[in-house]
Amino acid sequence: MRISNGVFVLATVIAQFLPLSQDGGLNWVGLPQAFALQLVALAACLWIGWRSRPGVAAAAVALVAVVLAAIAPATALYGAGLAGKAGWGFWIYMLGLGFFAWVAISLLSDLEPRDALARRAVGILVPAVFGLWLLYLWEMVVIGFGIPRVLLPAPSQIAVTLAGATDILAADFYQTFVKSVLSGYVLGCGSGFLVALLVDKVPFLQRGLLPLGNFVSALPIVGVAPIMVMWFGFDWQSKAAVVVIMTFFPMLVNTIAGLNAYGAIERDLMRSYAATYGQTLFYLRLPNALPFIFNALKINSTLALIGAIVAEFFGTPIVGMGFRISTEVGRMNVDMVWSTIAVAAVAGSVFYGLIAMLERAMTGWHASFRQAG
Question: What does the pLDDT look like over 302-326, one tens digit per residue?
Fold first, then answer.
C-alpha cells in the first residue's frame, strides 16, 4: 500500500513539470484551484502512508482525499479547455491518481466492523465507490482524448440523453421488462420447477428429458427468436416465449440437483419416521433444494433480460429496448443506445438484487450465509 502511495506522490510531482495541454501552454501551477486540491491530496496521502494505521479514519481520509484529487483533472478539462488535447502532465497525474484510488478502495474493503449493519454498509459502499471510479475514469479518458461521441460517449453525455428521453425509455422498459421478461420468467421458471418435480417422481423421464433439455438449451437464441416471432407474432408474446425457452432448463436442472442434495442420515431419519414421499419432499428435499432453486432464479434473471432484448431485434412493435438499440445504432445515435443499455443494466441489477434478498430471507440457515454473517 505504501508503494501505491509513493507512486501517487511521485506521479503528482513529475506532472508539475510537464505540460497539461498538447500545445505546451499550460501547467498545473497555472490552475490555482486544481493545484491546491493536489497539495491537500498529497498531504493526506503522506499521512496515510507513513503516519496512519489501517482503519475507519484512514479509509475516510483516503476517500475524501481521492475525491479532492479527482476534482483537479475535471477542473482542467472543463475549466481550462483541455478537452481533446490533454498532455503528458494530465495523464501522468491520472496514472498516479489511479494508484491512490486503489489505496482508498483497499482501505475501505479491509474494514471489518462488528456491527452487522455497518458490515452491510461497507459491503455496499465498496462496489459503489469502485463503480463511481470507473465512471469517472471513463469520463476523463473520453473527454481528455476527445473520442468522438459516435464511437464512445462520455457518461455525462449519456446522462443528459437519458434525462431528456425518460418517456421513451420508460415505454421501452415497460414493453421489454414488464411484459416480456417478467411474464416469460415466471412461466419458464415455474414450468421448469413443476417438471423437475415430475421428473423426480418418474425416474425414466430423467434419462429421456434431461439430454433433450441439454440439446434445446444449446440452441442459439438468434435461431430460435425468428421462429418464435413467426409462431406468436411481433408483440411481447414471442419475446416471452424466447425467455421461457432460456429459463426453463436452468431451473429444471438445478431443481433436480437440489432435490437429490440431501444426505443419507436425513433420508434414513425420514424413513424411520415412516414419512411418505410427499412428507419427505416438503420437509426435507425441497428445503435442501432451495439454494439450488435460487441459484437458477438468479441465473435466469440475467438470461431473461438478454433473451428478450435479443428477440426484439427480429421483429417487434416500435417500442422496446431491443428495438431502440437496433434502430438508434442505424441512426448513429450512440448516446441513446448507451442510455438504453444503462436502463437495462440497472433493471437487471435491481431484479437480481431482489432475488438475492429473497434468497437470504428464505435460506438464511444455509452454511454460506452463516459463514458470511
Answer: 999 999 998 888 877 888 899 899 8
CB of 66 within 8 A of CB of 101?
yes
Query: CA 177, CA 166: separation in Å to the nearest integer?
Result: 15
Per-residue cell: 75 = 477542473
Within the chain, what is the greatest distance between any pair of CA atoms?
Answer: 88
Q: Measuring CA to CA, how many Å separate 116 from each of 129, 343, 368?
A: 20, 31, 16
Compute CA distances 20 → 26, 50, 72, 76, 137, whole Å: 5, 30, 12, 8, 17
Q: Which CATH architecture has domain 162-372?
A: Orthogonal Bundle (1.10)
pLDDT tens digits, residue range 48-59?
A: 877 667 788 888
Q: How far apart are CA 285 and CA 369, in angstroms?
A: 19
283-289 LR contacts (CB < 8 Å, sep 24+): 285/258, 285/259, 286/259, 288/258, 288/259, 288/261, 288/262, 289/255, 289/257, 289/258, 289/259, 289/261
Answer yes or no: are the C-beta atoms of 304 and 184 closer than 8 Å: yes
In angstroms, rounded to a whole number, what is the distance separating the alpha carbons of residues 372 and 368? 6
Q: What angle do CA 140, 334, 230 make, to 5 degrees?
A: 145
User: CA 335, CA 121: separation in Å to the nearest integer?
Assistant: 33
Radius of gyration in angstroms for the set of CA atoms belonging to the chain, rounded to a whole number: 27
List beta partners, residue 86.
21
C-alpha cell at 369: 450465509
Amino acid letter for position 233: G
Count CB-CB contacts under 10 A for residue 218. Answer: 8
| pTM (2 d.p.) | 0.81
| CA 59/CA 141 separation, integer angstroms | 26
Per DSSP, the three-state class of 86 is strand
Is a pLDDT exceeding 80 seen at residue 219? no
